[in-house]
Each structure stands twice: as structure tokens, then as C-alpha cells.
Amino acid sequence: MSQITASMAGNVWKVLVQVGESVEEGQDVVILESMKMEIPIAAETSGIVKEVKTAEGDFVNEGDVLIELE
Fold this sequence. Notes:
single chain, mainly beta, CATH 2.40.50.100, four-stranded antiparallel beta sheet, 0% helix, biotin, Biotin_Carboxyl_Carrier/Decarb
């Protein structure tokens, strides 16, 4: 199982994937908003989305798990 984590603190602006969806390495899966900038978070490995651990509007800290892949 692989985890996608937040690279910085910010608000979750958009979740781009759903449970069961296939993602490729390098694909943007979440967009964070911090200081009025949009920061895309990409998958580091390919896989199937097992769980989305955050929702749009949530605040996350650096290192928080956003998505789990299997």
C-alpha cells in the first residue's frame, strides 16, 4: 500500500480522484491552496485509490496522508 501525503500545509481546494479509480505515477490527485496559490499534489506511484482521507475544504499539515493507494 502506498500513501500520498501533503507536501505543505494548506487547505484542500480540490480532490481530483475517487475510491476505485486508477491513477498513474505523476498524475495530480489533490490540489492544495496556500497563500492564494494552488499547489498540485501528484501520485508518486501508480495504483488504485483505496481511500481518500481528506475532503475539499479541510486543512492539512505537511506530511498528512491525503490518499491511500493499493
